[in-house]
Amino acid sequence: MCTRCESSTSALSPASPWQPRRAFLLAAAGAATAALGAPALAQVNVGNASVARNLVPADKIEAAGVQQYGQLLAQARAKNALAGDNNAQLQRLRAIAQRLIPFATPWNTRAREWKWEVNLIGSKQINAFCMPGGKIAFFTGILEQLKLSDDEVAMVMGHEMAHALREHARARMAKSAGTGAALSIGAQLLGLGQVGDLAARAGTQLITLKFSRSDETEADLVGLELAARAGFDPKASVSLWNKMATASKNQGGLSFLSTHPSGTDRIAKLEANIPKVESLYRNAKRS
Fold this sequence. Notes:
It comes from Variovorax paradoxus. By secondary structure, the chain is mainly alpha-helical.
């Protein structure tokens, strides 16, 4: 899903709620951006987000995501592959997103200001993603080939939203830039240069960015909790990945799984965390 734009009108809106020198730069960056930890009432345990992300300005990486998302939609529209507002599958996706979005802000206070958007692109790809800044896209292939239930769609969407909320792209950009670029960004944050050069150049990389296994595990668990709080059955996380494994076997491997490693270990982690969020799911279903 994560092979990786600000429009004037959003399709969705939020429903409501190291060496000494480098250490110095990290401290300065950390002071510029508040620590991103798990919400106090979180049921899953994912710890604090990577401090490395503070070396890349959040607003710059979000702006890059918004720009690339807009370019992707324009390309799809030119090929008559962008679903219209009346498309039943798109309406379904947006309805699911409306249930998930209210639970996003506790995981990242910046999400309160994001102009959330969901779109559907006609493609056989088994894929979906959420850009920094809350820009979500699904490909028809993931819905049609896997025949996803609403609960399974919510698990996919929650997982992708979690990547954006936990700022995995921002952290990966900082880590892949190397020490020299990191020091340069740190200097910029200290007022010694133009801020955001790296993030401004990073837009073309967001759509193909690969996350680490720890990022994927974190997204699985945060997405699981988001979906459970929104009233989606957490057991669907297991059925989703079983479907993904079957599809990969039948098709000789999926490009999707190159960035979303599958296997028994992943399912085992989800199964171990389902009991932690089942009460959230039951409460949501009662309300």
